[in-house]
Write a structure and sequence with these properties.
- The protein is an alpha+beta fold and 182 residues long.
- It has two domains: 11-94, NusG, N-terminal domain (Alpha-Beta Plaits); 96-182, SH3 type barrels.
- Helices cover 16% and strands 36% of the residues.
- The chain contains three helices and 13 strands, in the order E-H-E-E-E-E-H-E-E-E-H-E-E-E-E-E.
- The chain has helices at residues 22-31, 69-76, 96-107; strands at 11-17, 35-37, 40-46, 51-57, 62-67, 81-84, 86-87, 90-91, 125-128, 137-144, 148-153, 158-162, 169-173.
- A hairpin with a 3-residue loop joins strand 10 and strand 11.
Length: 182
């Protein structure tokens, strides 16, 4: 039998929420003193009588929490929180760097960065070396034309679209083999 120790380091985790409950869960967790991150995008919505700016979650049904074993179960008993995102049956910690990269994407969402695919291929890992997305890295999931790539954050299970130029990225690792499952 294993026992939980309460002096574990704090790690980021993704939590599934009930449909359209992300903001409520975020507020409740913050009231409990739990560090959260809910990436929101401002969108223009047309209502019957006016146009209104609303904030919608970037990743529908997800919220990110930074917890140790001490707060781990406090998240699960929060109304609207369903469960942690798991791989192979275990909640998967998300590296701090990926949360920071996600924040950079949100902050620079409207910035256009030109991309070309001359030296990168599907499955390669790249790092942005210049511009507003500097130091963001990810796996190239898809190349769309000559100026658009799709990057994946593996532990999030989500992809982010980005446009950047050949002089703005560097190859970290070449694709290992042609049988990568995406």
């Amino acid at each position: 039998m294993s026992y939980i120790t309460f002096n574990q380091p704090y790690k980021w985790y993704a939590v599934y929420t009930r449909s359209r409950a992300e903001k409520k869960v975020n507020t409740q967790l913050e009231r409990k003193g739990i560090k959260t991150y809910l990436p929101l995008l401002k969108e223009r919505r047309k209502l019957s009588d006016r146009i209104k700016m609303v904030e919608e979650p970037l990743l529908s049904g997800y919220i990110f929490v930074k917890v140790s074993n001490k707060e781990y179960y406090d998240v699960l008993v929060t109304p609207g929180a369903i469960r942690y995102v798991c791989f192979e049956g275990k909640p998967t910690p998300i590296p701090d760097r990926q949360i920071e990269d996600l924040k950079i994407f949100i902050e620079n969402r409207d910035c256009k960065i030109e991309v070309t695919s001359e030296h990168i291929r599907k499955g390669d890992f790249i790092k942005v070396i210049y511009g507003p997305l500097k130091n963001v890295s990810g796996e190239v999931v898809e190349i769309r034309g000559k100026r658009r790539i799709l990057l994946r954050f593996s532990s999030l299970g989500y992809c982010i679209h980005a446009e950047m130029g050949i002089n703005k990225v560097e190859l970290i690792n070449k694709k290992r083999n042609s049988c990568n499952i995406l």
